[in-house]
C-alpha cells in the first residue's frame, strides 16, 4: 500500500475533502475534458491545498483512476451461469459500464477520450498481462474457467480473446457516447460478445 503524502486532514474533514477533490475533477472533465485535469486545477476548483491533494492521490492519473477502480473485480459475484459464458462476460463488463453511466453522459463524453492516459492504462496491458483487480483480469479468469470446463475450445488464445472483448467493450461505450446515451449499450454488448464467442463454443 502506498504511503500517503501531504498534510493529514482533521478526521471530521477527511471524507469531505476527498469528495471535494473528486467533485472538482468531475466538474473540470465535464466542462473542459479529461486533458484539463491537473493537480493545480483540481485544487483551485475544490479550494483545497496541493498538500491536501497529495494526501489522497499520488498524482492526477491516480485521481482519474479513482473513477475506474472504485470496485475490485477479483471477487465480484456474477449471477449468470458459468455455461453462458458470453452473457457472463457481458454482465461483468456491464458492472463497469454502469459505474461510468452513473457519472453522466457529459462526463463520459469527456472522460472516454484518447487523451486520457489513466483510461488507456486501465484498459490496456503491461508485459502481456492485465493489471490486478481490473475487469480485464477477471474476464481472463472467466474465459480460462470456461475453457477448463469445456464450454470453450481448449485451443483458443485466451489472452487474445480477452483483448478482443475489451476492444468490443470500448467500441460499445464509445458508440453510447456518440449516440448521446440513446443506444441500449447492454443489448448491443451482449449481442456482439455472443456473436464473437459463438465460434469458440463447444457444441
How would you characterize the overall build of this protein?
With 203 residues, this protein is mostly helical. It folds into two domains: 56 residues, Homeodomain-like (Arc Repressor Mutant, subunit A); 116 residues, no CATH class. 59% of the residues lie in helices and 0% in strands. The radius of gyration is 19 Å and the shape is elongated. The chain starts with 13 loop residues before the first helix and ends in a 6-residue tail after the last helix. The mean pLDDT is 86.
Write the element-wise H/E pattern from the N-terminal end onward. Answer: HHHHHHHHHH
What's the rounded overall pLDDT mean?
86
Report how far the terminal alpha carbons are from each other. 46 Å
- The figure for the number of domains is 2
**Oligomerization state of this entry?**
single chain
Helix content: 55-70%
Radius of gyration: 19 Å
The structure class reads: mainly alpha
Principal-axis shape equals elongated
Strand content: under 5%
Could you list some keywords that capture this structure?
2 domains; mainly alpha; 203 residues; Arc Repressor Mutant, subunit A
Question: Outline of this structure?
Answer:
With 203 residues, this protein is mostly helical.
Secondary-structure topology with pairs:
Elements: H1 14-32, H2 39-46, H3 50-56, H4 60-66, H5 85-102, H6 105-111, H7 117-122, H8 135-148, H9 158-178, H10 185-197
